[in-house]
Design brief:
Layout: H1 2-21, H2 29-32, E1 70-75, E2 81-85, H3 98-108, E3 114-116, H4 119-122, E4 136-138, H5 139-147, H6 152-163, H7 166-179, H8 201-211, H9 215-221, E5 225-229, E6 235-239, H10 244-247, E7 251-259, E8 263-272, E9 275-284, H11 289-302, E10 303-309, E11 314-320, E12 323-329, E13 333-338, E14 346-351, E15 364-372, E16 375-384, H12 403-422
Antiparallel strand pairs: 1-2, 1-9, 3-4, 5-6, 7-8, 8-9, 10-13, 11-12, 12-16, 14-15, 15-16
Helix pairs in contact: 3-5, 3-6, 3-8, 5-6, 6-7
């Protein structure tokens, strides 16, 4: 019996250690904490760092100080900006360019589509996937190579597949950027190696929100490894360069980048308690993951989701040229708010400048803004709760009039009475 128990113990120990080597230990993930990322596999021609530990300040209510030149923290699902550090300054973005490449591919080609690799793609330096001219490979596998391993040859192969030529694809990239409202972005290549292209933290956040509408993108960028078949029996194993997937609990994407002019760059997404935050870090002198983690800590710790206005909530009567009109909120306003700021939030109602009767029930009559000092947290439309007929308040009940309106009504009635007396 003892021998049997000992054997079971040994088997369990071996199973746990084997699982740990592959990054999964059932029931021990929380206790053990995130494991450090392994050494990069395959070809790597850029110094994209794989740190084994993050250096972040203690989470708190104040935004962190970053070594990044430009940075941004947003709510991924709403686009609400929680922190910005020169977020509109254009900079080279290196391989973050490939996020746009992925968006166009996902919009214009099925994942099951097959790409025949051209000689141009196969000879793209550095040839990260080692693609061979004439090789046939799926769009899905090329996207894994593009987004996990940042493969430049995969970027060219996908660009030629979707745009017929590199020039045609770059034209499509810039047209899509304009459609998304990325006003300070210009692409020059599908992979960002040229360093003539540029963007901003705000524009990259806009792009990332757009591409997250595709479930395939969300799944790919969350993967740590992927195996891609090669010619014959060759197998390529690509590893995600986003070290936050190993080091930050809740990290689920997105993409790293590096060239000397661009510095180290990162777009990252993490989720916790039903919230998904996005951090953009541009032009750091060393690894960008600590800055991204510091932004996430600030967002998750300092902010809470609050219902600031409820749809249909009564906002009291508003003055429409001396007449009282009941008004309600046209929609709810839910936002992430710093906990320390909740007590000082104020509401500011602004009526339309040309507002006058008649007014239909449900008509927009103004805007209600929730403000923190001079900063607008959010706005909702204000609607008329009932109809308001044409002017003619002499016959209206006094409770529907403002004090000034009641005075004017009394004067009007007196005037009409005097006029009738002389007739």
């Amino acid at each position: 019996m003892r021998a049997r128990l000992a054997l079971r113990s040994i088997v369990c120990i071996i199973a746990v250690w084997t699982a740990a080597l592959f990054g999964y230990v059932p029931g021990l993930a929380l206790a053990a904490g995130p494991s450090p990322p392994p050494t990069p596999v395959g070809r790597s021609h850029s110094p994209s760092p794989f740190p084994t530990v993050l250096h972040t300040p203690a989470p708190g209510d104040e935004p962190p100080r970053l070594r990044s030149d430009e940075a941004l923290l947003e709510d991924l699902d709403t686009g609400q900006v929680l922190f910005g550090q020169r977020p509109s300054t254009p900079r080279p973005i290196a391989s973050l360019t490939k996020i746009m490449t992925a968006l166009l591919v996902l919009e214009r080609s099925p994942l099951t589509g097959e790409v025949t690799v051209s000689r141009n793609a196969a000879t793209t330096p550095p040839s990260d996937l080692g693609l061979k001219a004439g090789e046939r490979i799926s769009v899905r596998d090329l996207l894994y190579g593009l987004l996990l391993g940042s493969a430049n040859d995969a970027a060219v192969a996908l660009a030629e597949h979707v745009g017929s030529s590199i020039g045609g694809f770059v034209t499509m990239m810039n047209a899509r950027a304009r459609q998304l409202g990325m006003r300070h972005t210009r692409f020059r290549s599908p992979n960002g190696l040229d360093d003539r292209g540029y963007s901003t933290a705000l524009d990259l956040a806009t792009l990332t929100r757009a591409v997250y509408q595709h479930r395939a993108f969300e799944s790919i960028v969350a993967a740590k490894f992927h195996t891609i078949p090669g010619p014959g029996t060759k197998v390529r194993r690509v590893q995600n360069r986003n070290a936050l997937l190993w080091l930050y609990p809740g990290a689920i994407g997105v993409k790293t980048g590096f060239t000397t002019p661009a510095g180290h760059c990162l777009v990252a997404v993490a989720q916790r308690d039903g919230r998904r935050l996005m951090a953009v870090v541009l032009h750091t002198p060393s690894e960008p993951f600590s800055a991204g983690a510091a932004l996430f800590n600030y967002g998750f710790v300092a902010f809470e989701r609050a219902v600031l206005v409820r749809a249909g909530e009564g906002l009291g009567p508003v003055d429409v040229r001396g007449r009282l009109l009941p008004a309600v909120a046209g929609q709810s306003l839910v936002a992430l708010v710093r906990r320390k700021d909740l007590p000082v939030l104020r509401r500011r109602l602004v009526l339309g400048a040309e507002l006058r009767a008649p007014i239909k029930a449900g008509q927009v009559v103004g805007t209600l803004a929730v403000v923190d000092g001079d900063r607008v947290v959010g706005e909702v439309p204000v609607l008329a709760a009932r109809a308001l007929g044409p002017p003619g308040f002499l016959e209206m009940p006094p409770e529907d009039l403002t004090p000034a309106g009641r005075t004017a009504q009394a004067v009007g009635i007196l005037g009409r009475s005097l006029a009738d007396a002389f007739l």
